[in-house]
Design brief:
Structural class: alpha/beta
Number of domains: 1
CATH architecture: 3-Layer(aba) Sandwich
Number of helices: 8
Shape: globular
Radius of gyration: 17 Å
CATH superfamily: Nucleoside phosphorylase domain
Length: about 270
């Protein structure tokens, strides 16, 4: 799945015509989590629908903006929303934003998502530091231009900074394994039990390919899940996307504080 460099170059030209910012940290803001970008003083905001060849998100809660901002010593690129595989059946669309971030100069990727809690100790509204991931999408992808896999995918230094920041801020944060499935339907109770037996603590429909590609590019990667609901069979209510995005909004203050303080604690590039 090599990217079309003509498309990448056209997208970059459009973005650079709007801003000359060279971000060192990119953040992908998942379902219901896009509001974090609104807490920062943005130097530029570029609508994705205006960027040539850039994929258009179609899921509610994914606004579709590239927001450039500065926080302390760091220049940020924030993606307000993402494109999921089930929207396009095309991983080049899913991974296009990570390629853009890399070509703009980002050396760190912070990926956030909304996820269903499988660990029985997790509740709606919890934050989970992603220790490792399991890819059950059963699709292997490569950009055709990467340096080769970094191991592990999630950077140990970034994880330690996130954990220490959460402790200092008094923000409870679980740690666990994130499992990705293709979607778009939520998992059955039997599938949830399978994922639990595989070692999964939370399940969602994104992130694993983004973090794989970022690690292949040589970027440092951090992942944080917002547990928006108990997975099928573990709770009493029927799952729907509106509840997922609402749960994301309920934790936006603690997540915003955590992200801000993590970024401020990182050494300048």
């Amino acid at each position: 799945m090599p990217f079309n460099h003509t498309h990448i170059d056209a997208s970059l030209r459009h973005i650079r015509a709007q801003t000359d910012s060279t971000p060192d940290i990119a953040l992908v803001l998942g379902s219901g989590l896009s509001d974090y970008a609104d807490t920062l003083h943005a130097s530029a905001s570029v609508a994705t629908h205006a960027i040539p060849y850039y994929p258009r998100p179609t899921v509610p809660g994914h606004r579709g903006n590239l927001v450039f901002a500065r926080l302390g010593a760091h220049r940020l690129l924030l993606f307000q929303g993402r494109v999921h595989f089930y929207e396009s059946n095309d991983y080049s669309q899913v991974l296009y934003p990570v390629a853009i971030a890399h070509h703009l100069g980002a050396r760190i990727l912070i990926a956030t998502n909304a996820a269903g809690g499988i660990n029985p100790l997790f509740s709606s509204g919890d934050l989970m530091l992603i220790e490792e991931q399991i890819d059950l999408t059963l699709h292997g992808v490569t950009s055709g231009e990467t340096r080769g896999r970094r191991e592990p995918i999630f950077d140990c230094f970034l994880k330690s900074v996130a954990a220490e920041t959460a402790r200092n801020d008094g923000i409870p944060m679980k740690r666990g394994v994130y499992v990705a499935v293709k979607g778009p339907t939520y998992e059955t109770a039997a599938e949830v039990e399978m994922i639990r037996r595989c070692g999964g603590d939370a399940v969602g429909m994104s992130t694993v390919k983004e973090t794989e590609l970022a690690a292949d590019y040589g970027m440092q990667v951090l992942g944080i899940s917002c547990i928006t609901n108990k997975a099928t069979g573990l709770g009493s209510s029927k799952l729907n996307h509106t509840d997922v995005t609402e749960a994301g909004r309920r934790v936006r203050d603690s997540l915003s504080q955590l992200l801000t303080h993590i970024i401020e604690a990182l050494p300048p590039s």
